[in-house]
């Protein structure tokens, strides 16, 4: 191999807040993704994959101009050819709605969709908060009734149950409709104006842009003022209240406990009616596992036909972290067999034999040396053992010369050996599958 010049290149590292998911960890990710796919199938949700890069205006209009995400957290850049303003998606609800409008996805009825993928927010990184993080999201498009709000909460509940996640609670609130929120907003501004000297900079900034978000403050000094503020629930009319009742009673009927949090307002602008979050107290400040709600106005806001919709997003790192802290271990997958190749001249025969086995569904790790030579049998057996494989396939020089290989058990019945003709290895594969 060509050697690099003695001058050492500067070591490159991952961008702050953006993490590698290495093989030891990725087994846990794959297990989570597999459980997700099973649950989605049971709820009849279909997968959608939209681009990671969208027009910046999609998020400005969709997520909302006054949100923290749009004001301070987006990774935005200009297209170097046409100057188009682009952004790495900080969330995927606007992207899914854009795709649904663009491809007229709801033309013949509602669509229940889900996605898993990376999102990007320029936040201060800490445990459970990253600049690139993965979200699982569900978006149910074109369904007006409160039963779908309940259904997606039940879906999240079913997922957590299947994952064996404990101590997660659901908080609910209703943000009503535009007119109700407008009346509440006026009352909120009037109320907070009496406490101008108490409000922090953030709250002052939000007072006339998005006063609802003041209710979401993390500042303990504002706790009492916020606690006594007019709550949106008091402004909800009979229709909104009845709708919210239906969601609550459906959850109760299905045995899912919930609590009401009148301060739950969500940090994104598009919500109406039901909003909810799933929390844990076991991850410190980053305890929100899922956030979501109804966003009946977003289609129109993005230039589509008025279409009711409801969804949620789940932080996959947070869920994995919680699973780990609750003692769940995911076992790393091990190969069925490890192929021991004492002589490089046998490689073509070995590769061909392994091809047949792999086509039959047997997983085989082939020994390969770091340099072109072959390692000793002893060191190959050591590697075979460390791989966790149940069998060693020994392609010895004499065996190959007589058209055979030896299968040696490395686990149960350790040391037992059987010789197979190379052209009959599929019989061993069949035997293996019948005991698996
Ligand atoms: P969100 O509340 O901004 O909602 O994010 C949903 C979840 O993503 C959070 O509860 C959290 O678990 C995770 N999350 C957010 N930011 C970070 C971060 N920096 N690092 C790690 N995890 C994070 C949305 O994004 C909406 N699109 C949800 C939705 C879908 N609403 C309707 N449909």
Protein model, in words:
Helices cover 36% and strands 20% of the residues. The chain has 436 residues and is α+β, with helices and mostly antiparallel strands. The chain has two domains: 23-176 and 236-325, BirA Bifunctional Protein, domain 2, CATH 3.30.930.10; 337-432, 3-Layer(aba) Sandwich (Rossmann fold), CATH 3.40.50. It has an eight-stranded mixed beta sheet, sandwiched between helices. Strands 13-12-14-15-16 form a five-stranded mixed beta sheet, with helices on both faces. Strands 2-4-3 form a three-stranded antiparallel beta sheet. Helix 1 (23-42) crosses helix 5 and helix 5 (146-163) runs parallel beside helix 9 (238-253). The longest helix is centred in the first third of the chain and has 20 residues, at 23-42. The two termini are 42 Å apart. Bound molecules: histidyl-adenosine monophosphate. Histidyl-adenosine monophosphate is lined by residues 91, 93, 121, 123, 129-130, 133, 135, 137, 139, 268, 288-293, 295, 311-315, 317-318.
């Amino acid at each position: 191999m060509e050697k690099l010049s003695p001058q050492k290149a500067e070591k490159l590292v991952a961008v702050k807040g953006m993490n590698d998911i290495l093989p030891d960890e990725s087994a846990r990710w794959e297990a989570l993704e597999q459980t997700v796919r099973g649950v989605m199938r049971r709820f009849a949700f279909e997968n959608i994959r939209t681009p990671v890069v969208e027009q910046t205006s999609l998020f400005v209009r969709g997520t909302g101009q006054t949100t923290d995400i749009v004001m301070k957290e987006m990774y935005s850049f200009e297209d170097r050819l046409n100057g188009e303003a682009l952004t790495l998606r900080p969330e995927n609800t606007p992207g899914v709605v854009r795709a649904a409008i663009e491809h007229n996805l709801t033309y013949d009825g509602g669509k229940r969709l889900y996605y898993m993928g990376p999102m990007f927010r320029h936040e201060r990184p800490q445990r459970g908060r990253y600049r690139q993080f993965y979200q699982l999201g569900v978006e149910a498009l074109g369904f007006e009734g409160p039963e779908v709000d309940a259904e997606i909460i039940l879906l999240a509940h079913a997922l957590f149950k299947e994952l064996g996640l404990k101590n997660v609670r659901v908080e609910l609130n209703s943000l009503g409709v535009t007119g109700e929120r407008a009346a509440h907003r006026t009352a909120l501004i009037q109320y907070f104006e009496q406490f101008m000297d108490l409000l922090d900079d953030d709250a002052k900034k939000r007072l006339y842009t998005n006063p609802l978000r003041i209710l979401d403050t993390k500042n303990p000094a504002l706790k009492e003022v916020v606690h006594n503020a007019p709550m949106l629930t008091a402004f909800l009319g009979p229709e909104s209240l009845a709708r919210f009742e239906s969601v609550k009673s459906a959850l109760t009927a299905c045995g899912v406990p919930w609590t009401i949090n009148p301060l739950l307002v969500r940090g994104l602008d598009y919500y109406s009616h039901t909003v909810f979050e799933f929390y844990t107290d076991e991850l410190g400040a980053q305890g929100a596992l899922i956030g979501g709600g109804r966003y009946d106005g977003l289609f129109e806001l993005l230039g589509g036909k008025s279409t009711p919709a409801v969804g949620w997003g789940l932080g996959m790192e947070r869920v994995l972290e919680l699973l780990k802290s609750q003692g769940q271990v995911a076992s790393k997958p091990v190969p069925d067999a490890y192929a021991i190749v004492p002589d490089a001249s046998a490689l073509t025969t070995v590769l061909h034999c392994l091809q047949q086995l792999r086509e039959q569904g047997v997983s085989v790790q082939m020994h390969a040396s770091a340099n072109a030579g072959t390692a000793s049998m002893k060191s190959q057996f050591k590697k075979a053992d460390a791989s966790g494989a149940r069998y060693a396939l020994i392609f010895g020089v004499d065996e190959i010369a007589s058209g055979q290989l030896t299968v040696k058990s490395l686990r149960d019945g350790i040391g037992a050996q059987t010789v197979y003709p190379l052209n009959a290895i599929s019989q061993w594969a069949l035997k293996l599958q019948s005991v698996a």
